[in-house]
Amino acid sequence: MTLFEKIIAREIPADIVYEDDRVLAFKDINPQAPVHVLVIPKQSIPRIAEAADHDQDLLGHLLLKARDVAGDLGLTENGFRLVINNGSDGGESVPHLHCHILGGRALNWPPG
Question: What is the DSSP letter of 49?
């Protein structure tokens, strides 16, 4: 069971900012920006490279809810970044697909 599955099951506490039947959004414990929230599907998909064609609806829901959460956090006017890491070279640290919402300051490019 991954860290995120334990958060979904409420075995590990998290500062939850949004939840519905398909996704959960919570504040990152090691924020990389003034606002750093993770949006995760409740269905376990290890990473975007392993998503299947039948996951299309869930992936669309994940992105639209990330948009909504960013708006709820007041990030729409000045902007925000959505990041999905894939694999160790991509910065993935938990093998459960998730979208980072980063905002609250200007974000440089390229990112790292």
Answer: G
Catalytic residue IDs: 98
What does the pLDDT look like over 19-66, one tens digit per residue? 999 999 999 999 999 999 999 999 999 999 999 999 999 999 999 999
Q: What is the CATH number of domain 3-103?
A: 3.30.428.10
Instruction: Encode 31-54: b = buried (16+ Cβ within 10 Å), e = exposed.
Output: eebebbbbbbbbeebebbeebeee
CB-based burial label for 24 (10 Å; 0-12, 13-18, 19+): buried
Chain centre distance of CA 86: 12
Element (H, E) at 56: helix 56-72
Asked if residue 73 lies in contact with residue 53, where contact means CB atoms within 8 angstroms, the answer is: no
Contact between residue 45 and residue 51 where contact means Cβ atoms under 8 Å apart: yes
The DSSP call for residue 8 is H
